[in-house]
Amino acid sequence: MAIKSGRLDEAFQALHTSSERKHRDGQRLVDRLVSAFVARTTEHLTENRIDDAQHDADSVQQLGGRTPAIAELQQKISAADAQRRQRQQRRGDVLASANQQVLAGAYSIGAKLLEGLDADQSAAGAASHERLAESIEAKRVIVDDTAVRIKAATDADEHESAVALINALQPDQRAHSKIVALIQQAVGPLVTRGFSELTSGRLDRAAAIDDMLRPLQSASPSVGELQQCLTICRSAREHMEMYQYPEAEAQLAVLAQMVDGGTWIDAARSAIADVIRDLNSVSAGPLGLLGNQLNQQGTSAVASSLAPPPRAAEARPFASEGLPMRSVLQVDGVGGLLLLSSDVITIGTTSSSSRLDVPLVTEGTAAFISIRRDGDDYFAESSELFRVNGRQETRKLLTSGDSIAVGARGRLRFLKPVAASSSAVLQITGSRLARRDIRSVVLMSDSLLFGPAGSHFRLSDADNPIVLHGSRDGYALREAVSRASTSQPAVRTAAAAINIGESVVMKDIRFALMDG
């Protein structure tokens, strides 16, 4: 009954486990079942159901043994399976090619490749096919909509908005022909403005434009040219800060070849040349008779001697100019620190029209955040909502470790690691100041500690802290040295004043104070 009604698997189980199959009637049933399986296997092969055909062929072989007819059937199945694998390999190659076209922004080519795939595919292959087709369609919608908005922004001369729309796209979407055709329309005027700011000497504004255009460097060669010019400017400034005047002049000479009409470049080169000439004149005079103190290998080594010589920490009175409101302290092993001594400082983005104490190079609203010191406490306040630790606030009492969001990417981490000091530190992450060598801002109150764990800034080789004191008379450095006996109080060395443009060496660590 099972064979007659087509329930071959049921009949197979009954005969396979039955001892009656060895008898004459049982053998006749086996022959009928084998014939039925062969017929169904052939049907499976015709319909390209390879796995079902293999299943039935295995059942036939268990029932009837490996007869020539069954061996031929197995060969047909193997050949069909090999053809299926070849088709799947080709399909996989086509899917990979289509995906590569999509990543390159060629959505139409990717879609055409998908249309050429046949319907004979596995469930996993069908799912991959469907996901990629849906992804292409979704990307097309985004590109079409964004292209219309970019065009509207450029027509209205709102090029910053157009660039923001382009930057928000994925790389493959920016590579789409519709977007590529609009990129230069949006970028060109901003690059022109950036070079105009560069020529006039407003490098801060040029750098802000460069930051906005940086993601499009590969899409527009002119963006790369602007970035190269600003990189040369930064390199020249770094050489100046290290008193490497010939190297700085060489960088500006390269810049002069790239920028037309930059009178400030010629003026800066002339001033540096005067410095080098004066240095050579001094080194050739009576001071040069003291010995070969200056390197005779060239003006680079001579000019570098203009750096204020490190001097030992010695007692001298504080400066009379008072504590600078804004200065930069360069510390060996720590880097550049922006020192702000005001009780209230403002932070925000470079897009703000307000003059800020801490302008971060990132996109954002024009509203700024104030940080106010009240005794030992610090409060963050703003006229608009801002985020502290991911929560929206308008006023927040800051605790050590709080993260303040500024603009799209900027983050300031508030730290107050020394309980005995009212000074605090803002670590910059996710963005930067226009001056790249500064990664921390110090809200300077009474003192700043450099040394072992528990200090504001860690010095790996320092056993005892070096303290920067701030007062109405200016800044001074002091080393705190403990006596051998722990029962006796620490001995403090004499203070060494450090003024703008000077450097002090303590325990082989150089501290240089510069105008901020």
The helix-and-strand class reads: alpha+beta
- What quaternary form is this? single chain
Q: What percent strand?
A: 15-25%
Mean pLDDT across all amino acids: 77
Specify Rg, calculated over alpha carbons.
38 Å
Helix tally equals 14
What is the global morphology? elongated
| Total count of strands | 19
| Major sheet | 8 strands, mixed
End-to-end separation in angstroms reads 99 Å
Low-confidence stretches: 292-321, 483-491
Share of residues in helices: 40-55%
The spatial strand order of the largest sheet comes to 8-9-10-11-2-1-19-18
Structure description:
- By secondary structure, the protein is an alpha+beta fold.
- Helices cover 46% and strands 21% of the residues.
- The protein is elongated and about 120 Å long.
- The N and C termini lie far apart (99 Å).
- The model is unreliable at 292-321 and 483-491 (pLDDT under 50).
Question: Can you describe this structure in just a few lines?
Answer:
By secondary structure, this protein is an alpha+beta fold.
Fold topology:
Blueprint: H1 8-16, H2 24-46, H3 50-64, H4 68-103, H5 107-115, H6 123-155, H7 159-167, H8 171-174, H9 177-200, H10 203-213, H11 221-241, H12 245-258, H13 263-284, H14 299-304, E1 326-331, E2 335-340, E3 344-349, E4 358-360, E5 369-374, E6 377-388, E7 391-397, E8 403-406, E9 410-415, E10 424-429, E11 438-443, E12 447-451, E13 457-458, E14 466-471, E15 474-481, E16 491-492, E17 496-498, E18 502-506, E19 509-515
Parallel strand pairs: 2-11, 3-4, 12-13
Antiparallel strand pairs: 1-2, 1-19, 3-5, 5-6, 6-7, 8-9, 9-10, 10-11, 12-14, 14-15, 15-16, 15-17, 18-19
Helix pairs in contact: 1-2, 2-3, 2-4, 3-4, 4-5, 4-6, 5-6, 6-7, 6-9, 7-9, 9-10, 9-11, 10-11, 11-12, 12-13
